[in-house]
């Protein structure tokens, strides 16, 4: 067996192994179940409103996105795309909430730097990220959860591409709103 064949075989075995991992488990841990109430939480925010709870947004759709770190390239791109599309989300009665392990001061600087007009929440202990299966050691993973106005989890996005993610979420939001 040549080196190339061996490498191809190993890659195939690894991919086959990952294909048998249940969808309910992602890299950050077990995912909350779809079509069930999303895990509620209360976290401090950079907006000057003190704390924000998921339950504060009953009656609205919520895009709850977790990201690793303020001021990093992928996280900045993802936040910019959500900000760019913010009027479209608002027209669809949808609130965007970003969550990372950064503190409130870092979030405030990040929002000022990027002109973000939606809240970023400080999950400094990782407890909320863990509840959503989005915690890896000391940072949140790039996962997004779409929650309906009744607080029911309707969509989970793992392995997000920051450049196109907001457009994907908007398209799915439109589909889900057409059904309900």
TrEMBL record:
It comes from the Bacteria. PROSITE patterns: THIOREDOXIN_2. The active site is at residue 75. The keyword Amino-acid biosynthesis does not apply. Residues 32-178 form the Thioredoxin domain. Keywords: Antioxidant, Disulfide bond, Oxidoreductase, Peroxidase, Redox-active center. GO terms for cellular component: cytoplasm. Belongs to the peroxiredoxin family. BCP/PrxQ subfamily. Thiol-specific peroxidase that catalyzes the reduction of hydrogen peroxide and organic hydroperoxides to water and alcohols, respectively. Plays a role in cell protection against oxidative stress by detoxifying peroxides and as sensor of hydrogen peroxide-mediated signaling events. Monomer. This is thioredoxin-dependent peroxiredoxin.
């Amino acid at each position: 067996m040549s080196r190339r064949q061996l490498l191809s075989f190993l890659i195939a075995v690894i991919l086959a192994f990952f294909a048998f991992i249940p969808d309910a488990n992602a890299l950050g841990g077990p995912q909350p179940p779809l079509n069930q109430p999303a895990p509620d939480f209360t976290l401090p925010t950079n907006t000057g409103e003190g704390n924000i709870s998921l339950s504060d947004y009953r009656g609205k759709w919520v895009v709850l996105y977790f990201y690793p770190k303020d001021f990093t390239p992928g996280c900045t791109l993802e936040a910019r795309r959500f900000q760019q599309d913010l009027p479209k989300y608002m027209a669809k009665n949808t609130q965007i909430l970003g969550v990372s392990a950064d503190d409130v001061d870092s979030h405030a600087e990040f929002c000022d730097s990027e002109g973000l007009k939606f809240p970023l929440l400080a999950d400094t202990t990782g407890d909320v990220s863990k509840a959503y299966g989005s915690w890896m050691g000391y940072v949140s993973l790039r996962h997004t959860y779409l929650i309906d106005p009744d607080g029911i989890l309707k969509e989970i996005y793992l392995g997000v591409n920051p450049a196109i993610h907001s457009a994907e979420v908007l398209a799915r939001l439109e589909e889900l709103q057409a059904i309900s």
